Amino acid sequence: MRGNYKFFLLALLIAFASCSFTSKTFDNPDKDKLLIQLITYVLDQGHFDPQELNDEFSENVFYDYLNQLDPFKRYFYQSDIEEFEAYKNQIDDQLKSYDLSFFNLTHDRLLKRISESKDLYAELLEKPFDFTKDETYTSEYESLAYVKNKKEMKERWRQQLKFSTIANYDEVVSQRDSDVASNELPESVFSATNEKQTTKDNKSMAELEKEAREATKRSLDELYDFIDDRQRKDWFAVYINAVVEEFDPHTFYFAPEDKDRFDVAMSGNFEGIGARLQKKMDAIVVNEIISGGPAWRANELEVGDQILKVKQEDEEEGVNVVGMRLDDAIKFIKGPKGTVVTLTLKKVDGTIEDISITRDIVELEETYAKSSTVEKEGKTFGVINLPKFYVDFQSYDNRNAASDIKKEIERLKEVGMEGLVLDLRNNGGGSLQTVVDIVGLFIEEGPVVQVKTTGEPKEVLRDRDRAIVWDGPLVILVNELSASASEILAAAMQDYKRGIVIGSKQTYGKGTVQNVLDLNRMVRNNSNGDMGALKFTTQKFYRINGGSTQLEGVKSDVIVPDRYSYINIGEKDQENPLPWDKIDPVDYEQWGNYFDYEETINKSKARMAANEQLKLIDANAKWVKKIRDREVYSLNYNDYRAEMELNEQEAKRFEKLSDYKTDLTFNSLPYEINLMQQDSVLKEKRKRWHENLSRDVYIEEALNVLNDLRMTYAIKNNVAGVKN
């Protein structure tokens, strides 16, 4: 790949900077001003779609920055915002002149308001909440107006604190009732104002209300301890990211302590739980489960779960991480191998649940491709799962996704495979070169993907090897979390009509490429300390038919519902994504060896429409969206409890989803069976995988499609892998 020419020129400028080969110097003695100078220069010169720093840009930064500082609108007053608005259209000018006036004003005011709020919440939590009163709370913060005075601020805090406390109150009441379930005392009418009313263990409701308030205060005290630890540089990084994220959602400034990480992760060669996290508003959200890691093995944590509290095995109560910095929250979640961490989660369906995970070393072996065989109606089919497009960047000749897929296909052919399912669900991408090589395993030769850099001719990446490793029926499985390289592969197979794509309405929709630049390389004789790093978007992918995978992703030939079908989880749901567009297609010849391609798709659609399991999955997905979109909550405990019980009853309706089972039996290949004789852990991993496959309605339909597909020629020369 020729690479990003514009980025290459920028790299040359950086390389020459220390040798005085360019007149552009970065040596401002003020570190914050120097950082602005560096970042604005890099984005102007190297970003795929550089933004014009104008009043519109300034206004967008203004609102996004304030929203990040005060998402619940419980710090700033309307008068603060009016004072800040003098800078609303000046941020662009300040960036150009490296002026920090706006940041300094907002930073100083924020610290003052945070200090005031400490006294406010402490005062409010001294008094009992009346949970018999009929009032509601809205979590739709964007529609809230900023308060005008201290009285309104106190009322806003009161409502937010009462909402936090009613959840704690429900928890302690439910726990006490559960502990004394055999007690024959009659149920009480819940009231926090009647000292005589008791729970089944004779503890007054007023005492439980007090416990709930104390739990709320402890959580806030812990949160404010972390806020107090934040330094000016941490708040400045928030401001910088409010600026750079206007370019696109994948452009991000990494402060010095973060600069070696592309994503905040608990994965790789260290001790943790094996999950990637991201920050959304004040929530810590699970973004990816690392295959083979402790969370993956425990099989309880899911993408989309919000982590509310973290408890160590020697603690009685967990630490509230809502509102905490992502890095700070991760420090609590990571820990030594063998120790147990308990996470309090708000699940995707809105329920609250505690799960315990034993920390371990994340086993990278499970990120590799693995395969299985399955018999259906007298035919042998193969299933290959590819968690990501891995590669050894030190040497492509070492183990990589393409070489492993080729090896698994050859092994499957040796046992008589007559059709192949390639499972790319939850595969977030990886190496571009491996995608090109994998596509080449299924086509004779031809273009795979187009790559575009602003101001440069497009580059077409091709498979030039005429050999075909698998020329039989092929199905590609995807979902909303299949992204980047997965989308390139699925798109190529779809454009060639080489395979049938089954899955979500569309894949994730990330059609861009990012580079990470160490900003220290741009500063000569740096006396300012570590400047951090900048990740920024440099290129865009396009299908061979000319369409971008950006935003629209790949639309499945056969659409099947899943629990993420109706919630916002893709690129199109991020802030400031680059737009979809198209370029000229390239010449390519569609695969002509299926004679019933469209008929097979229509048969599959008909089966999916009549499938009762999928109907229930779709109903569950709609219910999940309803729960997540809810914005108004009752602060009357009887009503609150009734709503929770209704949700719990509705959730039980969908428990039968996990009972689904096919009559399919999946088996490991001979080489793996031999390995299992000395590796009981591998044996257990494959047993669990095969059990999951046998309960997988999507795999079941993929095999139905393979069974339906007919070729116009007999598959020949399977061993050599060359199509005649």
Notes on the protein architecture:
With 724 residues, the chain is α+β, with helices and mostly antiparallel strands. The chain is 39% helix and 15% strand. Helix 2 (31-46) runs parallel beside helix 9 (232-244) and helix 15 (597-610) runs antiparallel to helix 20 (697-708).
Label this structure with key terms.
single chain; 724 residues; alpha+beta; seven-stranded mixed sheet; 39% helix; globular; disordered N terminus; disordered C terminus
Q: Determine the fraction of residues in helical runs and give it as a percent range.
A: 25-40%
**Strand count, sense and closure of the main sheet?**
7 strands, antiparallel
Helix/strand/pairing category: alpha+beta
C-alpha termini separation: 30 Å
| Share in β-strands | 15-25%
Overall geometric form: globular
DSSP summary: helix tally: 20
Kindly report the average pLDDT value.
Answer: 86
Strand tally: 23
